[in-house]
């Protein structure tokens, strides 16, 4: 969620640079993970790609927030951002439920998954990228002191665990059976859904009470 603890050029410039870089990197991760998901037919990678797409939308929204804060004022800018974030999280929650459903279906009706070492390497690299992003957001936040950057640090760490789960499912599918992919899809989809619902409740309270 996008909140600001103080206004000013330092926050605006540092925060803007951080979220622009985040948007570019997340878009690259979406492309890579969609490629792996399509090539391997691994459902958990599809989940992870959608999660990164939501992160990309959040960064784009944050860019608009940092640009609007000087024009609209802090209060009006926060309400506009809160409304947009509410809509995005609603879509993410629906997507998470969709993946839980598909995970259950995959668990009941296993589908062949193609394992390749290059897929495992690419997924492992994306974990490192997310760790880098967490460090990057934290470094920028030393200058910006913004809640949005602190939230992005937490989100990047959560994404690392989700991607590690996807990597584990790829290894286990190659050793055990196709149904493992469904189990990890259910877990990943559940995590995404719970996180989105929590944000929905938070934004709803803000929109109603403020």
Give the N-terminus to C-terminus distance in angstroms. 15 Å
- So how many helices? 6
User: Mind describing the biggest β-sheet?
Assistant: none
Gross morphology is globular
Q: Can you tell me about this structure?
A:
By secondary structure, the chain is mostly helical. Helices cover about 90% and strands about 0% of the residues. It has 6 helices and no strands. The chain has helices at about 10-40, 45-70, 75-110, 115-145, 145-175, 180-210. The longest helix has about 35 residues, at about 75-110. It is globular, with a radius of gyration of 18 Å. Mean pLDDT is about 80; it is low at about 1-10.
Based on the model shown, name its key terms.
0% strand, mainly alpha, globular, disordered N terminus
Question: What secondary-structure arrangement, pairings included, does this model have?
Answer:
Elements: H1 9-40, H2 43-72, H3 74-108, H4 117-144, H5 147-175, H6 179-209
Helix pairs in contact: 1-2, 1-4, 2-3, 2-5, 2-6, 3-6, 4-5, 5-6
Quick gist of this model?
The protein has 210 residues and is mostly helical. The chain is 88% helix and 0% strand.
